[in-house]
Design goal:
alpha+beta, four-stranded mixed sheet, 6 helices
């Protein structure tokens, strides 16, 4: 990762001019961009399919990657940004891209203090949420059925009303007979 210096001029506590430098790493800029993009309505996720899979594993262990799907190049005074994202269904894609672009420009210029040369956006997919009400109740998966304890056959047949089900083994052993 590259980081670039930017000369800073200001005054110290005595009012005299000081000269120094500010180093802003690409990771810091990428996080600012990632947070800005995730805050735009209509952005479902950032990154390609493979990076989202790895990101899901990271989230399970509590290590969210805010730079996923974001690549930045930080120059002396300007930043170039590339973003890969998945849009939510129902948002016009070109309008979404323009909104993301405007958010990135504002965040980088305000929080990082650098100008933005360009923001390239690649929309790789559209997320369509599955409607739970349309899905019929399916048969349980084989692994779910195998993990359940076996039901005795006597439970599959309804008992006669008012007459408890009797076990033939218990009836014959009570009378002293062998089964």
């Amino acid at each position: 990762m590259d980081s670039h210096n930017q000369a800073s001029q200001g005054t110290d506590a005595t009012g005299q001019g000081t000269q120094g430098r500010t180093v802003i790493a690409e990771t810091a800029v990428a996080k600012v961009v990632g947070v800005a993009v995730r805050g735009v309505p209509g952005v479902h996720a950032l990154g390609s399919g493979a990076s989202r899979s790895i990101g899901a594993i990271r989230e399970v262990v509590g290590a969210t990657d805010l730079t996923q799907g974001v690549r930045v190049e930080v120059g002396e005074s300007q930043v170039a940004v590339d973003i890969v994202l998945v849009a939510e269904y129902g948002y016009p894609l070109q309008t979404l891209a323009n909104t993301v672009r405007a958010g990135v420009y504002a965040a980088v210029e305000e929080l990082v203090g650098r100008g933005v040369i360009e923001v390239n956006i690649e929309i790789t997919d559209v997320f369509i949420p599955a409607a739970d009400t349309e899905k019929p109740a399916g048969r349980p998966r084989l692994s779910e059925r195998l993990s359940q304890p076996a039901r005795p056959a006597s439970l599959d047949k309804p008992a006669d009303a008012g007459v408890p089900a009797q076990d033939s083994f218990n009836n014959s052993t009570e009378a002293g007979e062998k089964p």
